[in-house]
Design a protein that fits this description.
Layout: H1 19-43, H2 53-75, H3 84-96, H4 99-111, H5 115-150
Length: about 170
């Protein structure tokens, strides 16, 4: 056993905002996200009885953006305003991505007795969404690290320790 005391990591992310402001940011962001999702469904409607591609693309792209946002706000602290994460993460991206429409699409496939398609859609959406969050985070970290190296940090030197060694 070591005699050294454990070092507590710094608290990640921006400072907290008053609850009323957070609620307003989430509501405004949620409205924008829901309108964007509806717009995607109007511009790219699924064929009657077809596979729900639009909802899949919306959910996976929204998850990738969540990965980007979490790196920028929580890990690297690039965005410090306390309402950015509630507005963009919970609001815009929460309203844009949709579990309810995904569930309704699965139900519709089951009603049409397309069991294999429904099961594939259920599994593929979860796997693709998780992979998209991971990929968005990895790409964002690499782009930020490349920017740090390009700003004078040589290969082999460590840049800012904040967020190093973390993975999603």
């Amino acid at each position: 056993m070591s005699d050294a005391l454990p070092v507590e990591p710094p608290t990640p992310g921006p400072p907290a905002a008053p609850q009323a402001r957070v609620l307003g940011a989430v509501a405004a962001g949620g409205a924008l996200g829901a309108v964007a999702r509806y717009g995607a469904l109007v511009l790219w409607p699924a064929a009657e009885g077809g596979f729900p591609w639009t909802v899949s693309v919306v959910n996976v792209s929204g998850c990738a953006l969540i990965g980007v946002l979490m790196v920028l706000t929580v890990e690297r602290g690039r965005v410090a305003h306390p309402l950015v994460r509630p507005f963009l993460g919970v609001g815009v991206l929460g309203g844009f991505t949709t579990f309810s429409t995904y569930a309704a699409d699965v139900s519709g496939l089951l009603v049409r007795q397309e069991l294999l398609t429904a099961l594939a859609y259920m599994a593929a959406t979860v796997v693709a969404a998780l992979a998209a969050v991971w990929a968005g985070a990895v790409v964002t970290r690499r782009l930020l690290d490349r920017g740090v190296r390009g700003a004078g940090v040589r290969d082999g030197e460590r840049g800012p320790a904040r967020g190093r060694g973390r993975s999603v």
